[in-house]
Structure formats: structure tokens, C-alpha cells
Design brief:
With 208 residues, the chain is mostly helical. It is 58% helix and 5% strand.
Length: 208
């Protein structure tokens, strides 16, 4: 049986190029998950520092102390059996609610900026992807994606985490079952794919 990849036909050019035996194999889910986890941990730490150490003390100076106080009250309510005793659950104030919404929106913006900048201006990369030698490419050009596509891809990826979680995440993962190129929902919508540079099989020019 031949080990040669199947011939590239007009009807399956993209599938052939991005297949495991093609010149630009797409990354498997496991390595993509590892790269994303690295980015997520880094971003969460960075966003927490920026939000609670820099921005919130200026915009909502009492929010952190009030949140800690509410946390202690809710822990005490649970540990003392407040639910079973019919005691009303501690509620946070309108000011704290406004501060937490502000913090959530700021966290979303930080995630979007990080992913969008990496996709649009650093050749479809991020720190996690670089560590795992992965890269996003445009499926229209099979090269670096346009700036707008990178911004859109970063936004879609961020909304997957913050909008209707975990339904949005399950929906984007579900797209894996409907294509041979291991494209998730945000990949398909932005016309991109993630390739594994460890297994690139691009033809090289003969030395002169």
C-alpha cells in the first residue's frame, strides 16, 4: 500500500493541504488545548493584576474590600446552614454589582486585545502557541491572515469564553465533528485554521 498522500483534487484541495499527510497539517485538539491553557493562565493572572491592583482602586476604590466582606458573609452563611434555616442569602450592594460588571467587561477587553494582537500582528501567534509551535493561518490564502481576520478571530475566541459559557464553548467545539481540518467554530467563521509547525512538510528549493 502506498504511503504517498492522496492526490489533490479540485474538490478537496483544502482538506488535502491541511491533512496529516499534507504539507500543512492542522494541530490536534490536545496540543491546542495545552497552548490555550497556557495563554488562559497567563491572561487571568495579568488581567487580575491590572483590574484589581491598578484600575479598580481608581474607578471603584471600595470594591475590593466590600467584595472580601461579602465573601466572608457568604462563607459563614453556608457553613452555618443558612439555607436550611431559611436565612436570606447575603447580597452585594448596587455599587459592588456595578464594580463587578465593570471588572468583567475590562477582563473581556484584555482577553480580546491579547488574542487579537497576536493573531493580527504576530503571524497568528500567542505565547501559548509559540511555546507549542502552533500558528493560525488564513484558509483563503494559506498564509498569514489579514489584520481584520485576526481581530475577528480574537474576538470570537474571547466571546466563546465570556458569552453563554459553556454553551458557546461546546458549540465551537462541536464544529470539529463537521470538517476534516480540525477547525473549531471561531476558525470557520474567521476562515482560519491552526497548523502544527512541528510537522510542516513544505517542499524546499534545491540548493544551487
Amino acid at each position: 500500500m502506498s504511503d504517498q498522500p492522496p492526490p489533490i483534487k479540485p474538490s478537496n484541495v483544502l482538506d488535502s493541504i491541511l491533512s496529516d499527510s499534507g504539507p500543512m497539517p492542522t494541530a490536534r485538539l490536545g496540543i491546542r488545548a495545552l497552548a490555550f491553557l497556557m495563554d488562559f493562565v497567563l491572561l487571568t493572572a495579568l488581567a487580575t493584576f491590572i483590574i484589581w491592583k491598578i484600575v479598580m482602586p481608581q474607578e471603584h476604590p471600595g470594591a475590593f474590600a466590600e467584595f472580601n466582606e461579602w465573601s466572608q458573609e457568604i462563607i459563614a452563611w453556608f457553613s452555618e446552614g443558612g439555607r436550611q434555616a431559611g436565612v436570606e442569602q447575603p447580597q452585594w450592594s448596587d455599587d459592588l454589582s456595578e464594580a463587578l460588571i465593570y471588572a468583567r467587561d475590562l477582563q473581556l477587553l484584555i482577553f480580546w486585545l491579547y488574542f487579537a494582537i497576536g493573531e493580527a500582528f504576530f503571524a497568528g501567534s500567542s505565547l501559548g502557541k509559540r511555546a507549542c509551535r502552533l500558528r493560525s493561518i488564513s484558509t483563503a490564502t494559506m498564509g498569514t491572515m489579514p489584520i481584520m481576520a485576526g481581530i475577528v478571530r480574537g474576538g470570537l475566541k474571547t466571546l466563546t469564553l465570556f458569552l453563554a459559557f459553556p454553551i458557546a464553548l461546546l458549540a465551537t467545539l462541536g464544529a470539529l465533528f463537521f470538517n476534516k481540518r480540525r477547525q473549531m467554530g471561531h476558525d470557520l467563521l474567521s476562515r482560519t485554521a491552526v497548523i502544527d509547525e512541528k510537522y510542516l512538510n513544505m517542499p524546499t528549493k534545491p540548493s544551487s
